[in-house]
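Translate sequence into structure tokens.
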Amino acid sequence: MPRRLSYNVKQCLEKSRDSALLSVETYNKPAIKFRSGGYIVLMIIAWTSLFHAIFFKQKVKPFYREKGKKKFEKKDDDYHYWELKTCIKEYFKDDTQNPIRRNLEFFIPLRNKIEHRSIPEIDPDLFAECQALLLNYDKTLEKEFGIDYCIRESLSFSLQLFPSSRSLAEAVKFNPDAKKIREFINKYRSALSTDILESGQYSFKAFLIQVVNHKSTDTLPIQFVRYDNLTDEEKRNLNRMVAMVKFQEKPVVHNNLMLPADVVKQVQSALNDQKIIRKNNKPKDKFNQDTHTRCWKKYQVRPNAKDKSPHNTNSKYCIYDKLTSQYGYTQEWVNFLIEKMQDEEEYNSLYNSKINNP
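Result follows.
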């Protein structure tokens, strides 16, 4: 029997499960063109409410506090609940490379980009991450509240198997919004490690093969078999079949690294493109190339340009490429900077420190 839940936990849990089921219903309706958009918005609500239920169960109130006070902040006479981004940080803590977390973090900025746009061509390109988002949700429900609260029994295999008549790559030619979203998707995926990209918790992929009707009437028409449970021979045979339909991909060295200009662009964007006035009373970007240089010096991410050992970097954040004599930066470095630069004291210390002021 399900455990007895408090009022707050029960309310959040019911809202969460209803939102998740509505998201699947929205995605599977044949006449709906705003398929991924509607699904993602509702799943964001489902995950946020699930985290709120978890925190209430843990006797933690998921509310923002007034700055510098213990008193909880209110908006429109109600407590200001944590948003999904904050919930993720509180739930996963320092586990920044958890594939479930990276899957969730993929959908937050994507939701903001597609919430007011209709781009049906995006559906096939996002199917794997969307499916993982749902499976991870149900697994987390089971982990935190038990199998009785799972929604898997209410779900069925989607019949929407045929892809859109136009791919996202083709839509870019006609739709400028599609181009921006495609750039975001490619940039986010390229910043992920191979382990996360290949994880079924980040992106669920299935290889569906039509077979002749089985003689047994008890056999299910569609069955999922975990890749990890296959024998070595079955894996080899499966890989051969996948190779028959898969385009050959050319290897790219350090395709998950970025140059300083890209780092600056991402961090400045995350800071809502704030401006500052320092010299000559002219406004400039709060986070710029100079700020970035001060950061890698302060946090000792890489050596100076004239150092005789350029490879002595913090590989979590930066890697030296001997072939081009350039430093490449990771997404972890971008995430680290975004968090640090939101702290005004930390930001100002870059310009007050003697080390960073030659």
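Note: The two ends are 67 Å apart (CA to CA).
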